[in-house]
């Protein structure tokens, strides 16, 4: 708008100048001036035409600007309405934020109160629950306390299994005896047929037997020979050591396939249990036996049915060596040697029966008077004899404890044996 206005002013000034110049030239009244006036009139006319065009353009531009202003006013009014609506919305939002903040603060306060109450309630319930749990644990511990009078279930099961096996063996033996009895009855019937025929011959032989018995009685009454007395004394001295066990020397009942049965034999201490039932707990032998019983059962629980046979045997022999041989047998041997050992003699008999039932036997061919040879007595521990007067150096003075052997067949089928260590006194 300003551009067109300025242009209009410029054209008006130029037109006024031309008109002034025209007037001046008209006053002069010359040919040259007439031509100049004519030219000036043409320029004035052109200027006026130009101004008219500009006026028309200005009118159109003004009209357009006016319309734009009206549209702008409408837009401004809409903007004002929108701005007022926006301010109202902002005001409402601020009011909602304030209410929300107030509600949030109130909810936080209420939630804190609720949480605090719940925590107090939970704390009370936790205390009650903890008290109840302690009572339950006390009841469980009281239930788990082992009654000293209650029998050991594992031991009872082992005994039952052993008795069942023995019962089966007895049934087999009874069947064999029944068969043998039937055969004997048949033989008896056959013999009965020949009895009458042999009866007379027997009568004649009985007469001869009576005569022979008379002669033998007369001979025995006159026997006073010194050699016979020495023989009788020798038989008495060779009666055998009370520590000797010989029943299992030729038996190979322990194999790699029946490890569990062997374990039960070691764990079956019923013969010792019955002996120590009436022995007071403070007795030293009772304490030794309790230690052995505890260790042998711990060892028995370590191995399953598929365990290696030699590994199991080594473990059991270590317990027998430590608790039975080195402690109980040694104490029994010292007491018997000192004399007046009725209890120890009974205990030794029970120990021998237990070891024999487990499969042990003693190397009882070792005798006092033999000469010690290291390669022949690797199973013996040698100690210097206290009283070896008149003995040769290296002579065995006394066998204090025999080595105990046990036979077995390994998984390859080879016959082998293991042993504990014995003790003997040797002249130094």
Low-pLDDT stretches are: 223-239
Radius of gyration: 66 Å
Question: How would you sum up the major sheet?
Answer: 3 strands, antiparallel
Helices and strands, in order, run as HHHHHHHHHEEEEEE
Strand order within the widest beta sheet: 1-4-5
Structural class: mainly alpha
Counting DSSP E segments of at least 2 residues, the number of strands comes to 6
Strand percent estimate: 5-15%
Determine the N-to-C terminus distance: 147 Å
- Overall pLDDT level: 78
Number of helices: 9
What is the approximate shape?
Answer: rod-shaped
Helix content: over 70%
Layout of helices and strands, plus pairs?
Blueprint: H1 2-28, H2 31-144, H3 153-221, H4 226-237, H5 259-267, H6 270-276, H7 284-302, H8 309-338, H9 342-358, E1 360-362, E2 380-384, E3 396-401, E4 404-409, E5 415-419, E6 422-426
Parallel strand pairs: 2-6
Antiparallel strand pairs: 1-4, 3-6, 4-5
Helix pairs in contact: 1-2, 5-7, 7-8, 8-9
Describe the protein in words:
- With 428 residues, the protein is mostly helical.
- It contains nine helices and six strands.
- Strands 1-4-5 form a three-stranded antiparallel β-sheet.
- Helix 1 runs antiparallel to helix 2 (31-144) and helix 5 runs antiparallel to helix 7 (284-302).
């Amino acid at each position: 708008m300003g551009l067109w206005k300025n242009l209009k002013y410029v054209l008006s000034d130029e037109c006024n100048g031309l008109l002034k110049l025209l007037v001046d030239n008209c006053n002069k009244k010359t040919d040259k001036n007439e031509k100049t006036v004519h030219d000036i009139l043409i320029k004035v006319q052109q200027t006026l035409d130009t101004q008219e065009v500009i006026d028309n353009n200005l009118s159109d531009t003004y009209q357009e600007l006016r319309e734009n202003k009206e549209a702008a006013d409408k837009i401004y009014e809409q903007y004002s309405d929108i701005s007022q609506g926006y301010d109202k919305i902002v005001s409402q939002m601020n009011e909602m934020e304030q209410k929300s903040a107030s509600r949030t603060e109130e909810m936080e306060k209420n939630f804190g109160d609720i949480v605090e109450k719940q925590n107090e309630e939970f704390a009370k319930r936790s205390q009650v629950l903890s008290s109840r749990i302690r009572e339950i644990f006390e009841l469980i511990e009281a239930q788990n306390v082992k009654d000293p009078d209650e029998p050991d279930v594992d031991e009872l099961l082992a005994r039952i299994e052993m008795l069942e096996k023995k019962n089966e063996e007895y049934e087999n033996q009874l069947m064999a005896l029944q068969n043998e009895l039937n055969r004997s009855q048949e033989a008896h019937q056959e013999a009965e047929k020949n009895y009458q025929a042999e009866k007379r011959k027997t009568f004649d032989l009985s007469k001869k037997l009576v005569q022979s018995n008379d002669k033998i009685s007369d001979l025995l009454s006159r026997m006073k020979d010194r050699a016979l007395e020495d023989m009788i004394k020798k038989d008495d001295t060779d009666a055998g050591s009370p520590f000797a066990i010989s029943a299992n020397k030729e038996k190979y009942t322990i194999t790699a396939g029946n490890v569990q049965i062997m374990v039960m034999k070691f764990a079956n201490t019923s013969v010792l249990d019955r002996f120590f039932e009436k022995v007071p707990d403070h007795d030293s032998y009772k304490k030794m036996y309790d230690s052995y019983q505890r260790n042998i059962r711990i060892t028995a629980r370590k191995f399953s049915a598929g365990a290696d046979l030699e590994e199991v045997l080594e473990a059991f022999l270590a317990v027998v060596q430590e608790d039975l041989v080195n402690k109980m047998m040694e104490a029994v041997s010292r007491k018997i040697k000192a004399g007046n050992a009725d209890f120890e003699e009974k205990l030794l008999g029970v120990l021998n029966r237990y070891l024999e039932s487990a499969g042990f036997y003693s190397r009882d061919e070792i005798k006092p008077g033999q000469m010690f040879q290291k390669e022949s007595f690797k199973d013996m521990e040698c100690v210097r004899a206290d009283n070896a007067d008149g003995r040769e150096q290296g002579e065995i003075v006394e066998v204090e404890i025999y080595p105990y052997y046990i036979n077995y067949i390994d998984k390859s089928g080879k016959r082998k044996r293991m042993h504990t260590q014995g003790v003997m006194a040797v002249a130094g």
